[in-house]
Amino acid sequence: MTEFDAAEVAVQAALDAGARYADVRVMHRRYESMAARNGEVEALTQDESIGLGVRALVGSSWGFHAVPDVSDAAARDAGRRAARIAAASARVPGPPVDLVPSTPTTASWASPCEVDPLGVSLAAKGDLLVDATRTMVDHGADLTEGLYQVWDTTKWFVSSEGHRIDQHIRECGGGISATSIGDGETQRRSWPSYRGQYGTTGWELVDSLDLTAHAARIAEESRALLTAPLCPAGETDLILGGEQLALQIHESVGHAIELDRILGWEAAFAGTSWLDLDRLGSLRYGSDLMNITIDPTIPGALGSFGYDDEGSPAVRRDAVREGRWVGVLAGRDSAAVAGLDHGGSVRADGWARLPMVRMTNVGLEPGPHTLEEIVAATDEGVLMDINRSWSIDDKRLNFQFGCEVGWEIRNGRRGRMVRNPTYTGIGPQFWRSMDMLSSEIVPWGTPNCGKGQPGQVGHTGHPAAPARFRGVRVGVRA
Amino acid sequence: MSEWDLAGRVVELVARLGGADAQAEVTVSRGELALTRFANSAIHQNVAESAVEVRLRLHLGGRTATGVGSAVSADGLRALVERVVAATRYTPPDRGWPGLTPPTAMPASARWDAATAEAGPDERAALVRTFVDAAGGLETAGYCRTTYRSVAFANSAGHTAQGRTAEAAMDGIARAGGADGVARHCVDRLADLDGAGLGRHAAAKARAAVDPVELAPGHYPVVLEPAAVADLLQNLAWYGFNGKRYAERQSFAEPGTDQLDPAVTLVDDPLGATGLPFDLEGTPTGALTLVDAGTTLAVAHDRRSAAEQGTTSTGHAAPGSATFGPLPRNLRLVPSGRADAVETVGATTPPSGAVVDADTAALVSRMERGLLVSDLWYTRVLDPKSLVVTGLTRNGLWLVEDGQVTRAVRDLRFTESYPRALAPGGVLEVGRRAVRQPGRFDSVWWEAPSLRLASWNFTGGASG
């Protein structure tokens, strides 16, 4: 029996048990990660999992059941159990559930991949991490770490409406970090970001990071940070590097425009959103420079796919246009509740998890400047780069971020390095203060976005470039 | 085939395919995870997963690799072993390999409740129904979760172990006029969850949280309720009592030193509920006192971090502990007074107002001016060694004056060093009744009473 056959059996079993709609994802995922520390490999893990998850709609209620077994009997039982769970949901029913239309599609899609990440020898991958972490030790860091991760996922989607889609998605990435330890605190520098760079692409991405070439520099910077002056405290102009701005977009825009949050479906855990659907199309989110798209079609970015986990094709849409809020991330049911006409942003972390609204690639369009032009145009301020900590309230308004490193800016020049840089603000006020934006866009990948209960880890992409914000509070500390 | 049989089969396959020198650890876990989620006072996500996982860690020729698979057929097990054996040929030498756990006596497995393990969606939905109804018309959201796991361990040194665990938890909010109130409880038996009591608790808190006022940031005395204290315990566990971080000098912990207030005793106690009697390396688990009356005594170790430190494992090996480090995951702040005075949440008289239990009321009554904090949210570590954390209050914040709650307050952001807040002189009072709070993952819980602290550093208003 093929994976499609198993999915068809499960869909039919759910329909036979009373479902008015059902869909099934069979997923086969191979995952590999290696971590090195101080010149030694400390962990190599290779996971492989296959299973199927059935989503059934009975009346106005959903049910979902997943099993690590794609046999005929298991698929049939999973379909029945999903329908039974949906029926139980009716004890505490909600409003009627509709699904916005999705054209039944038969299709195959594969992500771009020049070098198969699982085809690269473990020895070569281990040597890369060992060399980089040893180099950082040689240059004065106390603790050095290197990591890569690879996900190779094939999934087969079938719905009772006639979808039949298979996709082969390969994702990978990695990075290194150096930590220096002082008497009462630690300082860390990373390359190319806090947890590395990731994409829906092949090992060529990791090769392009050139980890070893940056090892000595970040080790020396981590040690220098221990004696650097503290980031000044107060209000000033803030220039953010692209990697930090990517996380700013993720936290204060991407999550805020998730329709399930706006509708209150995540209220108890992930939270809601400050956005009100009544103001979709009119709300001023940021300055005229702020153009944010939802675009799962970007080749190689971590939030890319051919079809989402409801069978909706990848489509580029606007989220913020010239500072005005115009779009949301939605699924077929949430879009119907909101009176919108499209989904396309629903994914699940594996076969055992319910698909839910997830960021795809949510990122900025480029501006007209370079980072050096932005620095040159700034009389006084702080440049911060590479995220170190992140926190935002449950409506996605009040945030506080810490970065690994900062530099004072005076009279258009980058000055001395400062340690423990932090900044804080309120999302729309912050975005309205953006007055310079670089053209140096990088599609940063975030492989650890947590959401949902049971917990799911999402992979998202965030095209971002350096930008300047006026009058931001910096230097918050205990 | 049972988990026990599967584990034994994998050990045999390793001997056959990897040779007599291969050292293997095998953990087979089979279980059910079900979670009924509600929002806008209706069940909107209702899921169940039947899972099986075979985890093999193999040390061969001085090299180590780990593999995990979900296929338990003969072909699937063989493929897993072949894959991991092959991986060990290409990994660099593992000089820190701590060896296998030798045959060791196991503590008795905790009792587990079959009714909880076998609970169906109708039972969870019924509990959700009682929560929603008890909220008295307020909008509600949350979940009811049941889990069951049966786990077997075997290694090629001849050590074996097996155990079963079941757990239930409920976590919900009620919403009134834009304000939220929360109630959470984690138990061994689904029958011990009081959905109505939790719903009343959350609703009372929500009603008391409406029309909040702005309050200037600054240092305030606080009473933290159990949900908020759970965040302190989690961050202390992850960053302070993590044996790997301690070995790397990234932890504040200094065993043998009076680091925290004498009122603070912290015990990691996986068998205090229906936990497994062994960890991922087959090491027996049990109560581990991390802090006794303010004196740091221990940190958590797996075999690798213990070997690095010249000590023995405390039974804290878990998936990922080789890289992130071994973590306490069942941490209890020991209440003052009688140790057995554990209250069932919501089971007492109908609550009203911001203070819904007598234990917290007693702490509030002795606070001249300060803040009552229900819950902490999105806490992130700015520096692991000093354990400076930023985050926000959530689900209710109130001003207390002369021992009485006087106003609801808008949420505040804080930036605070947790060890400093709990340092000698910082803990004014520990409550008498502990409440077990569910972790984000089953089998992880944090148990604490309310806590009165001398000072907490609020650094900004969440609304501007």
TrEMBL record, chain A:
Domain of life: Bacteria
GO process terms (BP): proteolysis
Domain (Metalloprotease TldD/E N-terminal) ranges: 22-86
UniProt-recorded Gene Ontology molecular function terms: metallopeptidase activity
Gene3D superfamilies assigned to the protein according to its UniProt record, in alphabetical order: PmbA/TldD superfamily
InterPro entries reported in the protein's UniProt record: Metalloprtase-TldD/E_C, Metalloprtase-TldD/E_N, Peptidase_U62_metallo, TldD/PmbA_N, TldD/PmbA_sf
Domain Metalloprotease TldD/E C-terminal: 234-448
Keywords: Hydrolase, Metalloprotease, Protease
Record GO cellular component, one term: cytosol
Family designation: Belongs to the peptidase U62 family.
Name the UniProt record assigns to this protein: TldD/PmbA family protein
Automatic annotation (TrEMBL), chain B:
Renumbered residue ranges of the record's region Disordered: 302-328
GO molecular function: metallopeptidase activity
Superkingdom in the source lineage: Bacteria
GO biological process, one term: proteolysis
Domain Metalloprotease TldD/E C-terminal: 217-460
InterPro entries, per database record: Metalloprtase-TldD/E_C, TldD/PmbA_N, TldD/PmbA_sf
Protein name as annotated: TldD/PmbA family protein
Annotated organism of origin: Micromonospora craniellae
Taxonomic lineage of the native organism: Bacteria, Bacillati, Actinomycetota, Actinomycetes, Micromonosporales
